[in-house]
Specification:
The N and C termini lie far apart (55 Å). The protein is globular. It folds into 2 domains: 109 residues, Roll (Urease, subunit C, domain 1), CATH 2.30.40.10; 324 residues, Alpha-Beta Barrel (TIM Barrel), CATH 3.20.20.140. By secondary structure, it is an alpha/beta fold. It is built from 14 helices and 15 strands. The structure holds zinc ion. The site of zinc ion has 6 residues, from loops.
Amino acid sequence: MNDTTVYQPDFLYTGGRFHEGRALHVGADGRVLAEGPVPSDARVVRLPGRALLPGLVNGHSHAFQRLIRGRTEYVASGHTADDFWSWREAMYRAAESLSPEDVYTASRQAFLEMLLAGITSVGEFHYLHHQTDGTPYADRNELALQVIRAARDVGLRMTLLRVGYARAGFRAPENPRQRRFIDGRVEDFLSATEALAQATRADALVNVGLAPHSVRAVTREWLAALASRRDMPVHMHVAEQPKEIEACLAEHGRRPVELLAELGLLGPHFTAVHAVHLSEAEVKLLGGAAVNVCACPSTERNLGDGVVPADALVGAGARVCFGSDSQATVDLLDEARQLEGHLRLWRLRRAVLDPGTGAVDGLAARLFDMATVQGARSLGLPTGTLAPRAPADFFTVDVNHPSLVGASPASLLSAVVFGAEKGAVREVAVAGRLVVREGQHPRAEETGRAFHALARRLYHD
Ligand code: ZN
């Protein structure tokens, strides 16, 4: 028996467009093979009525925040308004009580939901490290390893971005709710991250990166120590809220991106998450260094952060990708259409991110590239395409699903990007292994049951 598996959908998306009558050949090592004649004894998986696309890459996630979905959508009594900072306190309340097993349970639910939405890789920006009183666990990476176990148990590929968190902020009093996040010294942060990379080296589905939390949470000395690190992806929350800009100006006399540029952190390995409040000069700095910008429109909208100026950033040379961040929703194609939608409301015109080639699917192809290829670039992963030797990470959609029916081959990509609902996702594969079939994940029920019990315990309801 030949150990090639051939996936035969009606439409296959490779090289930036859909092809009819082509199949995807996957080797026993879980990688895409060069196209060629189908061996007579190959295992053929027929996927009638399906379009097959490279798996979506979720560039920015805090998995445990799935626990606060729907729990913070009101103004607390005694307050006149709700904003990012009051939301953050609610999020910290959830974070402070979770045991290692709880972190696993919450993360597994979030990762399962991602797979069901066609996401095959995630960048998990992980900042819960220590016990509630701030004492490290016997293994400093105990909670990171729980998050990795959760991803592995449902079959999701991950870059674990281990967060470095040094302080509450510039001249900010200590916040006891941040004790679980804080590493005393930058050396502790770097050695823990290196130990994590070592511990996961044998796992082909796990990659590790560095994540200085934000210019609020780390000092200039920490950033300077990270400037020479080009061997791992580096992710950082950048310019999410106006207060962060004010504090950075007060402490450093320059805006966040100006500070990062001066210290030498910017480059193609660097991802600025959010990058909402930017000066024109900062847009040029990010573009000139070919950094990745991870937009998280559903969260940025939920938290009242603002809109990522993605048109200006792309024009300057930056690469844009997407993240589900707070898990307010988990739908990466919707993140793509929301970003474009927010820009239309802001710029008062349509098709703002269209590359201007005149192609009917030019805008959809650009947004899809951001949701796949650019996300993979940001996370340092070889995924995002179905080119030969790439890992066979893919998803299918049912072209007859109510949200897609009627699309022609030429309009199918636009239909998927602008209209597909999550229910249209049918098969999902990671490294050539089908983890979702017919829209079902085999561990969905037990995962949901454990998550339900945790949520009810956490909120005493
Ligand atoms: Zn975030």
